[in-house]
Every structure is written in C-alpha cells, then in structure tokens.
Amino acid sequence: MKGKSVKTFFDTHAHYSAYNKNQEYYLPIIDYFSNDFSKEIRVLDIGCGDGSFLKGLKAANLRGDFLGVDISFNLLRKAKTNVSDQKGIHFVVADAFNPPFRNTEKFNLIHIDSVLHHLIDDNRKKSNRLSKDLLTILRSKLSQNGILIVEEMYYNSRILPHLTSSIIFYSLKIINRLQLDLTFFRNDLKPGLEVNFFSEDQLVNILNELGSVMTMQRNPSKLSKLEKVMFLRERGHITYFVKI
Fold it and tell me: Which of 116, 124, 220, 233 has its CA 20 to 30 A from that of 40?
C-alpha cells in the first residue's frame, strides 16, 4: 500500500486487535538493550501504533525525548490516550519516507515494528526496494553507536523460499481489484489489505547492509490448514537488533 491507501486502511481498522499491543510485550526487548543507555536518549518509533513501545521505555525507567510517528491519525489518537499519564512522549502523523524533522537530527534508538510488510508497490521487487529505501533512511537518522530495532513478520516457505509470500501478495492484489470482502472467511482479510512478507533470509540480508545484526527474539506461530496448502513451512514474528 502506498501513502494515502495505507493511511485510509489503518484509520479504518485502528480498532483491530492485531494493530494494538501492550507495553508488557515489549519489556523483554527493552531489557535486552536498556543497559546500553545510561543517560537521556532520543528515541524514534516508526509506525508506533498505540504507543506501547514508547510507554514500555518509560516503564523501564529510560529517560529522554521519545517521538512516535505513524501515518494513521486514529492510531495516534489511541496512542495519546495510552500514554496520557507519561511525560516526554510526543506523537506526529507523518509518512516515514518524509520524516517531520530536520535532516541533521539524529536518534540514539530507532524502532520499527511490522511496518515493512505494509510497504507495497506494483510488484514484489519494487515493494522490497521500498523496504530497503526506508531502512536506509532510518540508518541515516541514527547517531554514532546508535541502535536500530527491526520487528517483522517472517514467512518461510517449502520448495521455494518466497513462494507463499508471492501467493499472498498477488492474491490480495486480485482480491482488492475485484473489490471482494472476504472477512466472512477470514477476519484478518480486511478490505484493502496488501502485504509483502519476507523470509528470515531476506530480512537478514537486507539488514546486513546496514550494520551488525543479532536476532533478539523469535516467536513462531501455529499454521492454519490454508497456510500449509500454500506451501508455508513456518511463520512468526522476529526481532532484530542492528548496531551501527
């Protein structure tokens, strides 16, 4: 999805539970790097959703200036409510490709969770390029010895590494072109949804171009019968720690 269509989709489905987390989810991740910062830090959270990651930083007693960016006004409205009891957390509606700050601004920590697979172009090759371009932009915003945390869905296929991801990508394009509503079949097939999932190998290869990569957390999910039919071997949520 591009620009306006992404915003429309998430403004429409901001209430959906899959797009909302709680700060406890992020605490093991925050514990992993919190000792790296002994003084006040600047944090940028791209696709911050309901603000739970930034609220988790506060719960872990990290101090500094925290900025959450999301393209969805409705998600940020939830975020402001979620952190209303916290100081030093700010939110702005913006496209991550056009960040709302000066080119010279730098951050000690940048976090991006489940954003890359929503960057959609006409085909998978162009979509992959969008993800690489965004990560390059984020890398340029890190201060010296900065940390980039990338959280993403991973889809590892049988037979060919990216077979299932390609089936899903082009099937959704057809479904949306025909304006079909399949939520009666699967509740997560929201009208307008488009996704470009990566395999673990793809994610690591992309991130290796940015810096030193470590896997922080890997959470496989149970496969449905439909996913198995689509040659999926494993899927889940994975967190990478990239040291610049």
Answer: 116
Sign of the Cα pseudo-torsion (169, 172, 174, 176, in order):
negative
The one-letter code for the residue type at 76 is L
Give the tokens for residue 107: 């951050």
Which residue pairs from 176-184 have beta carbons closer than 8 angstroms and sit at least 24 positions apart in sequence?
none
Compute how many other C-beta atoms are within 10 angstroms of the C-beta atom of residue 18. Answer: 10
Cα 27 versus chain centre, distance: 17
Superfamily of domain 3-243: Vaccinia Virus protein VP39 (3.40.50.150)
Spatial CA neighbour of 71 closest among 8, 21, 18, 148: 8
Q: Which residue has the tokens 């299932």?
A: 164
Got the DSSP string for 74-128? HHHHHHHHHTTT-SSEEEEE--TTS-SS-TT--EEEEEEES-GGG---SSHHHHH
Q: What are phi and psi of 182, to 5 degrees?
A: -110, 20
Average pLDDT over residues 228-243: 95
Domain regions of the chain by residue span: 3-243
- Phi-psi map region of 188: left, alpha, beta (phi>0 left; psi -120 to 50 alpha): alpha
Q: What is the pTM of this model?
A: 0.93
If we measure between CA atoms, which residue out of 218, 235, 217 comes closest to residue 226?
A: 235
The answer to whether 224 and 141 are in contact (CB under 8 A) is no
Name which of 9-23, 48-62, 83-97, 113-127 the model is least confident about. 9-23
